[in-house]
Amino acid sequence: MWYQMKIEDIMTGEIIKLAPDETVRDAVQKFADHKISGSPVLDTEGNLLGIVSETDILNAVKTKCKRLEMVYPSLSLVSVSFIEGFDKKEVEEAFQEISATPVAEIMTKDPITVNLEGELGEAIDIMNKSGINRIPVTSNNDVVGIITRRDIIKGLAKEG
Fold first, then answer.
1. Where are the alpha helices (DSSP H) in the chain?
2. CATH number of the 2-159 domain
């Protein structure tokens, strides 16, 4: 049954990582190349420093735009909706302005983590209560994977 599933049974083990000095442009490129919407930020020793998501990037762009407001943030940078009247040039200029910013400056610091051997229900509960879409998975304080809402849906589909 799904409630007996372990996080390790459905998590993604091959994670796309970011270094704290990689830029917002680097993150956007990795997200697009790997069809992901967020990534953990690890130092050279593999310690988890934070997590960067599309929301973090779009919020950074938004802070540079005077009139831009997101409507229903999506899973893909391509399909984000904005209210009418935004100035495309302003958005492009805002992205150019933040594109060289290190991800360490926009990441969510001290992200919530779950243990590899934890139960699926724990991850679902954390995501629902915290409004987050992905959680780094740890074992002995090492990041060994990531569990996303998509992973959970795929896992539930296999159980069905």
1. 7-10, 24-34, 54-64, 88-98, 120-130, 149-159
2. 3.10.580.10
